[in-house]
Request: fold
Amino acid sequence: MFDFLRKARAPENAATAGPEAKASAVGPLTAGRISTKADAFGLAGAAWTARDGVSLARAGFLGNPVGFRAVRLISEAASALPLILQDCERRYETHPVLDLISRPNPAQGRAELFEALYAQLLLSGNAYLEAVTDAGGGVRELHVLRSDRMRVVPGSDGWPVAYDYSVGAAKHRFHMREGAAPICHIRSFHPQDDHYGLSPLEAARRAVDVHNAASNWSKALLDNAARPSGAIIYRGEAGQGSMSPAQFERLQAEMETHHTGARNAGRPMLLEGGLDWKPMGFSPSDMEFQKTKEAAAREIATAFGVPPMLLGIPGDATYANYQEANRGFYRLTVLPMAMRVTASVAHWLSGFIPGVVELKPDLDQVPALALEREQQWRRVGEASFLSDGEKRALLGLPPHVEGA
Reply:
């Protein structure tokens, strides 16, 4: 019935007709340049995490609980959205595109594929989807490729002519062609890069470093028996304030062996020979350290578009309750990204099929939006001045076709 995943043949006179020349006037200026993440925002003084994708992912996702939870929360919520496929005339219940997306490859299902796609976009600002074609030019499988292994090869007009995917010393080049391109490149907006997107981790990398440093400071404090430091004062018999090298080494060894670490917490200290212990309390900056850590956590959550309330971060009362925060999370973060990604995937797959189809989330099946969708259906249904076709268009439905 359907042969949508087969690329349509070009007209016979296509080879003889000269292509219409349309290109950006500034394309040749950017053709030979691939911007890097270190081109802008250079910082000196403090030790910050490198701007490359591998370092950012290691510091902000693998080594930071706030970034990890934010990425997982967005990618899992977006990949779980029900999808609908329609064109200008009807909504499809069965379609080869739906079959392909539901089982994109032998190792992944739809949710797993889109979760990896969304996570790559959040972590690096770039997401790459590969189409595996058969002998007839139809799409057989879809695979998400790691963004840290991909490099854009721009042509003379500035548009990508190929993508290089490197694994160790091995490299594979995907040559781009008109229409049925083997790679779908989805990227976030970057104001200072022509070929790569901007990651939320890159915008929040200073907050990530502050949060990680605060966690390391807390761990060091626990290793030191969770007590503030102090000073050992030595006064000899004649009032001298210096110890012999042997006395100093012995004291240092006893301190490291019997009075440091969590297992020695609370152990009394035995001082002899004119030694006196003077504890030092926390400074005002130490007392504000936890607030600094919480502020950094809120900045990370803000960069990803996740309400801090959903991540369990205290001190945020932007939303009246958890339900409102969850609705705002879907409306402002999950749905915009899901709509943009699914639209890009549908546009890319249109190079392999005749006609145009639209792939988008089904808003009527999102529990967080159930109340407002019910109100919208009621308002549209009660609008007597609207025709049935206008009501269907307002609700995002295709026109009703008689006999369909």
Observations:
- The mean pLDDT is 79.
- The chain has three domains: 27-208+296-361, 219-290, 369-404.
- Residues 118 and 215 are 28 Å apart (CA to CA).
